[in-house]
């Protein structure tokens, strides 16, 4: 993968203040369902309370709620996490991982800076959102977060480029344990792991976020029913005592996915304070929150517009405490205009 030069930042008002700033209370957003799908337009609710009431009465049964969640226009938008030196991380991601700097903003009154990087525009690609909180140069990644995945044409060549640029290679190229896919592992300056996968011609190079869970079947059920995802595949590796499940909103070779990993006998993990959340687009945050509640999920921010911005969001926790934020597709599309 050839290294890409950072593009100039595009200043514009964010639809959120900080997704992972000072008080460690992240909440971000982005848009649509396939790698290039356009959002389905609809009229915004005239009143938040009215919309919430309508959503609560929208489903006559769990079956109706599940059917709506599966038909909703959703896509993984971006993943948010904290770094100790944002310029150092941008340099590594652009020079070693071949990402582009899509935009960067400094919010001195809130004492944080963040940057969006990826392999394509935010309206149709999965991207990363880095957050630097003034004066905080180190975070605890914890044991629960696993890695990010990047798909490339040639793993060996990519690893050599990363090594030549001073990157840390922690696993040399070779077949994955229990499989045939060629992979390697590298670490960024903060210690976040990146799995480099050989997948030629993919439209979505930033392809995975891996999180560890304490009960895989429980996690699969939650993401299927409460979040409307599909179980794309599940693989058990008894020799190495782990099982993985790929969850997402479209085929794994064309969309970013959530990789859930269960290690035999481990039911809880320390999550640290570095990783924040994943953002997901939806056509209706009010109905989304109701679906999550119907299937036993925890809504930690009730749906509604953000003060002063009017972008509608809702935030939830999965059974293992991992956070997701759903954002209104039309509101996000307006922000990108």
Short description:
This protein has 337 residues and is an alpha+beta fold.
Strand order of the largest sheet: 2-3-4-1-13-16-15-14
Overall radius of gyration: 19 Å
Any idea what the CATH architecture is? Roll
How would you state the average pLDDT, rounded? Answer: 87
Strand content: 25-35%
User: Can you write the helix and strand succession as a string?
Assistant: HHEHEEEEHEEEEHEEEEHEEEH
Distance between the termini: 30 Å
Give the fraction of residues assigned to helices: 10-25%
Helical stretch tally:
7
Q: Please, how many domains?
A: 1
Q: Per the principal axes of the C-alpha atoms, what is the gross shape?
A: globular
Overall structural class, as computed from helix and strand content, comes to: alpha+beta
CATH H-tier superfamily: 2,3-Dihydroxybiphenyl 1,2-Dioxygenase, domain 1
Describe this structure in words.
The longest helix has 10 residues, at 62-71. The chain has helices at 48-56, 62-71, 86-95, 155-164, 216-225, 285-294, 329-336; strands at 76-82, 100-107, 112-118, 127-133, 145-152, 168-175, 182-187, 193-198, 206-212, 230-237, 242-248, 257-263, 275-282, 298-305, 312-317, 323-328. Strands 2-3-4-1-13-16-15-14 form an eight-stranded mixed sheet. An eight-stranded mixed sheet has the order 6-7-8-5-9-12-11-10, covered by helices on one side. Helix 2 (62-71) packs across helix 6 (285-294). The chain is globular and about 60 Å long. It has one domain: 2,3-Dihydroxybiphenyl 1,2-Dioxygenase, domain 1 (Roll), CATH 3.10.180. The protein is built from seven helices and 16 strands. Mean pLDDT is 87; it is low at 1-19 and 22-45. With 337 residues, the protein is α+β, with helices and mostly antiparallel strands.
């Amino acid at each position: 993968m050839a290294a890409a030069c950072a593009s100039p930042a595009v200043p514009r008002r964010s639809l959120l203040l900080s997704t992972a700033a000072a008080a460690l209370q992240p909440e971000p957003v982005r848009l649509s369902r396939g790698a290039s799908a356009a959002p389905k337009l609809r009229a915004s609710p005239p009143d938040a309370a009215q919309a919430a009431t309508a959503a609560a009465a929208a489903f006559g049964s769990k079956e109706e709620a599940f059917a709506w969640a599966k038909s909703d226009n959703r896509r993984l938008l971006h993943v948010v996490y904290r770094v100790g030196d944002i310029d150092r991380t941008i340099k590594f991601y652009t020079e070693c991982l071949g990402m582009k700097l899509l935009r960067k903003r400094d919010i001195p009154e809130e004492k944080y800076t963040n940057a969006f990087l990826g392999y394509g525009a935010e309206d149709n690609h999965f991207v990363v959102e880095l957050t630097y909180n003034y004066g905080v140069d180190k975070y605890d990644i914890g044991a629960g977060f696993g890695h990010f995945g990047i798909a490339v044409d040639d793993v060996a060549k990519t690893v050599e480029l990363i090594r030549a640029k001073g990157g840390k290679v922690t696993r040399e190229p070779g077949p994955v344990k229990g499989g045939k896919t060629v992979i390697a592992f590298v670490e960024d300056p903060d210690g976040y792991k990146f799995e480099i996968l050989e997948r030629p011609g993919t439209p979505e190079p930033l392809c995975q976020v891996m999180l560890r869970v304490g009960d895989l079947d429980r996690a699969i059920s939650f993401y299927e029913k409460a979040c409307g995802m599909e179980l794309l595949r599940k693989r058990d590796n008894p020799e190495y005592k782990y099982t993985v499940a790929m969850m997402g909103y479209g085929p794994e070779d064309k969309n970013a996915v959530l990789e859930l990993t269960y290690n035999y006998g481990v039911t809880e993990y320390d999550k640290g304070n570095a990783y924040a959340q994943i953002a997901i687009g939806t056509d209706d945050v009010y109905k989304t929150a109701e679906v999550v509640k119907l299937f036993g999920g925890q809504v930690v921010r009730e749906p509604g517009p953000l003060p002063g911005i009017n972008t509608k969001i809702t935030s939830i926790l999965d059974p293992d405490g991992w956070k997701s934020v759903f954002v209104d597709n039309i509101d996000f599309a307006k922000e990108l205009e």
